[in-house]
Amino acid sequence: MRTNSMPRITVSLTLQVCLCASLVGLAACGKGKEAQKEPAKEPAKEAQKEAQKEAQKEAKMVQEPAKEAAKDQVEVFSWWTGAGEQEGLDAMIADFKAKNPTIEFINAAVSGGAGTNAKAILANRLQAGNPPDSYQRHAGLELADDIKAGKVEDLTKLFEAQGWKDKLPKGLLDAITIDGKIYSVPVNIHRANLIWFVPKTLKALGIAGPPKTWKEFLTQAQAIKAKGKTALAIGPTWTQKHLLETVLLGELGPDKYTGLWTGKTDWKSAEVTAALDTFNKVLAASDIKSSAADWQPAADRVIDGAAVYTVMGDWLDGYLGRAKKLTFKTDYDVAASPGSSGVYDFLSDSFTLPIGAKHRAAAEKWLTECGSVQGQDLFNPQKGSIPARTDADKAKYQNYLATALKDWQDPATKIVGSLTHGVVANNAFGSEIDTALGIFVQKRDPAAFGAAIAKAYADTK
Amino acid sequence: MMRRIRAWGPGLVLILPSLIALAVFVYGFLGWNIRVSLSSWRGLAPAHDFVGLRNYIALFSDQRFTEFDVPNIAIFTLVFVAGSLAIGFVMALLLDRGVTGENAFRSVYLFPMAISFIATAIIWRWLMDNGSGESETGINKLLAGAGLGALHSDWFKSGSRWAIAAIALPAGWSLSGYVMSLFLAGMRGVPEELREAARVDGASEPRVFWHVVRPMLLPVMMSAVVILTHISLKTFDLFYAMDQKNIKIDTPALYMWFTTFDGGFYARGAAIATLLLLGVATVIVPYIWYSVRVERRR
User: Fold this and answer.
1) Nearest to B42 among A6, A428, A452 (CB)
2) Mean pLDDT of all residues in B47-54
3) B contact test, residue of A24, A426, A435 with most B CBs within 10 A
4) Which residue has the higher pLDDT, A33 or A325?
5) A3 contacts B191? CB cut-off 8 A
6) How many structural domains are present in chain A?
7) A340 and A334 in contact (C-beta within 8 Å)?
8) Global pTM?
9) pLDDT value of residue A41
10) What's the mean pLDDT in A61-65?
11) A253-277: buried (b, 16+ CB within 10 Å) or exposed (e) per residue?
12) Chain B contacts of A29, Cβ < 8 Å?
């Protein structure tokens, strides 16, 4: 039968199509790898100059003569490729090069929001026993897996030698100390527990000020809804998790909030269930049914006046102040999220020293740069975050950052760690919370939600 | 003996490299994946212990897997495969009538397949936005503009159990042109003499199609179903870019990725991958068996 040859032709055709597709895929992967190896192309020149000037002063005092062994190098892996953060990294690299002229710096940055792509690539490199000389992680328990698997070195000695323990706030040191040891050097600090709004919108609605408690928020939300606006703009799933942590913090207070991650606060207790119920009501007052695709469009809804509030970390200041060129205090304003004034829910980017790093000595020098006042003061104003050290130069930080730095350096401020951004939950627990949260958003059962998280905590401890 | 080797030896040597590559990169890793799924590997350090079917049993009481992922992928596959087949078939039928500019039409319908699923998802995420009032956009706005505002839909953000079916829209948009070209080739493969013979016997055009062309399209349809089903089961990027981590449109493929690379649950991820493989195999193995049998008969 002649006609029977038809299916065979189609099948071989499909095979060819599939083959082509996979080849294209491979080619794309190849490109990706090349891109990683390429160093950042456009260093921020001004920052570089500034860095060099400062470095020259410093170099005389600190560094050994430049006649070290042959060509040394250091490969640093990060996800700092976005606007602001790349400039900050470049400024720090320039300073590092000025202090260590013999060391060649290889910038192995991988793009992708909050490091999602970078983390998958890094996991492969760590498992293959081919680590970079230093890599970026969120400070805190996000690093717990790496420690357990024996992938990173204990840096406690470096901290002692550099005297960093006296320069960092105790709350931060507690959060990054795992089983009595410190494994990473925090470079910057972001704050997560913030609620953003436009003063004009509040005035038009006759609202005196941002809510002090979540209860007050819910009351305001009713009035806002009556006027046809959305009380709270929200984005994709991780922003919902971010909201969850701020509601828990506001409802339970800093001590019980911290207890959620150390096992002291029971996820199934009545007060946690009540807090989760509040979270449920807050979600109901948000635009979750037609949530924005990301955190920036969610903030746009607030700026446009369609929504009144959004809960987001202080990287939003960079978006509104730098990217959209709005004026702090008049075009937009910020307050501690309800129930959390005087509390700093922090997250921090930090660098590690992997076991088996090919250029260990150079990597230690990079970490020294990360922990230095100079390095942090070069990086942070660019990135839109504040330095982890309390002895940083205040004059370098303006507008929102000035208030953030003041709060951070205030000894009365209570410091707690962020859930969504890797400080208080290890990766396994964090991803199980994602699942529980996703199911909760569909089913809206606070008690079942608490029980699911309690079980996940026990399973992933 | 020597003669036999001479007969198939050169052929064997020629295909040997690809055989070895297949053995290592497909079947070797497949076996490795199954091995991992039977261990308790979690976190960066591999565990090479043996825990039997524990990961599989856990999956069957995993709410995300049983209540969301499996029903979701079943609904998606059903709507996507049936929809693409129907649309592809109708388009092929229309083109088969001999339209002017057939080549242009054929390419236009095939183009969406050239766009990656990520790009497709980003376009359709906007098209299927469910904002209302001032923020209404995409298809909903189009409907409202045409006076069909009553058809306003929440698409994949709807509260319905079938919300994931909305994602079959972009998937079908992407692949129905391909199904069309399969069917078109099948229709063109039917010898004109057969149709004429039927017409001489007094059959009307619909009957010619039903009794002569349709039976000969069966093999084409089989391969289309197999291709679409396995694409559907494996689809990852489309959902990922549409609304990340929204459990409403979660599928086993997504759960596998997130649990493995976000959470470090390597063993659980491998178990999901194995189940996915079994799912694809239930479609493909009967097909292979069928084609081998057909070939033998000849």
Assistant:
1) A428
2) 93
3) A435
4) A325
5) yes
6) 2
7) no
8) 0.85
9) 39
10) 41
11) bbebbbebbeeebbbeeeebbebbb
12) none
Of A2, A427, A434, the CB nearest to B245: A434
Residues shown for chain B: 298
3-class SS string, A24-85? HHHHHHHHHHHHHHCCCCCCCHHHHHHHHHHHHHHHHHHCCCCCCCCCEEEEEEECCCCCCH
In this structure, the answer to whether residues A55 and A89 fall within a common structural domain is yes
| Residue of chain B with shortest Cα separation from A430 | B263
Instruction: Please give the average per-residue pLDDT across A231-244, as a whole number.
Output: 95
Indicate if the pLDDT at residue A349 is higher than 50.
yes
pLDDT digits (tens, 9 = 90+) for B128-186: 988 877 778 889 889 988 888 888 888 998 888 899 999 999 999 999 999 999 999 99
Cα gap A366→A99, rounded to integer Å: 10
The answer to whether the CB of B73 falls within 8 A of the CB of B167 is no
Cβ atoms of A277 and A214 within 8 Å: the answer is no
CB contact under 8 A, B298 and A290: no
In chain B the domains, ranked by start, together with CATH numbers, are 47-297 (1.10.3720.10)
Considering the domain architecture, whether residues A339 and A427 belong to the same structural domain is answered as: yes
Mean pLDDT of B197-215: 91
Cross-strand partners of A181:
A178
Q: E strand or H helix at B62, and its extent?
A: none
- Model ipTM value: 0.88
Structure tokens at A163: 């005297």
Q: Please determine, for residue A123, whether its predicted confidence score (pLDDT) is greater than 90.
A: no
CA-based end-to-end distance of chain B: 29
Query: Are B245 and A238 an interchain contact pair (Cβ–Cβ within 8 Å)?
Result: yes
Q: Is A422 helix (H, G, I), strand (E, B) or coil?
A: coil
Assign residue A253 the CATH number of its domain.
3.40.190.10
Shortest Cα–Cα distance, B265 to chain A (Å): 7
- Whether A28 maps to a domain, the answer reads no
To the nearest whole percent, how much of chain B has pLDDT over 90? 67
- Pick from A1, A2, A3, A294 the residue to mutate for testing the B interface (most B CBs within 10 Å): A3
Find the chain A residues whose C-beta atoms sit closer than 8 A to any C-beta of B.
1-4, 6-11, 14, 119-120, 123, 126-127, 145-146, 148-151, 236-238, 289-291, 293, 301, 306, 427-428, 430-432, 434-435, 438-439, 441-442, 452
Cα of A48 to nearest chain B Cα, Å:
36
Structural domain contains residue A23: no
Q: Which residues of B touch A452 (CB under 8 A)?
A: 63
Average pLDDT over residues A434-441: 96
Which chain A residues have a beta carbon less than 8 Å from that of B192? none
Question: Are the Cβ atoms of B42 and A126 closer than 8 angstroms?
Answer: no
Domain membership of residue A290 as a residue range: 194-346+418-460
Same domain, A337 and A455: yes
Q: In angstroms, how far is CA B178 from the centroid of its own chain? A: 12
In A149-269, where does DSSP find H-type helix? 156-162, 170-176, 199-205, 214-226, 237-262
Residues in A touching B154 (Cβ below 8 Å)? 289-290
What digits encode the pLDDT tens for the residues A32-44? 333 333 344 344 4
Summarize pLDDT for A152-176 with one digit per residue, the tens: 999 999 999 999 999 999 989 999 9
User: Count of CB atoms within 10 A of residue A87's CB?
Assistant: 23
Cβ contact A423:A346 at 8 Å: yes
Distance, CA of B176 to CA of B79 (rounded, Å) = 12
B267 CB neighbours in chain A (<8 A) are: none
Closest CA to A149 of B266, B258, B98, B121: B266
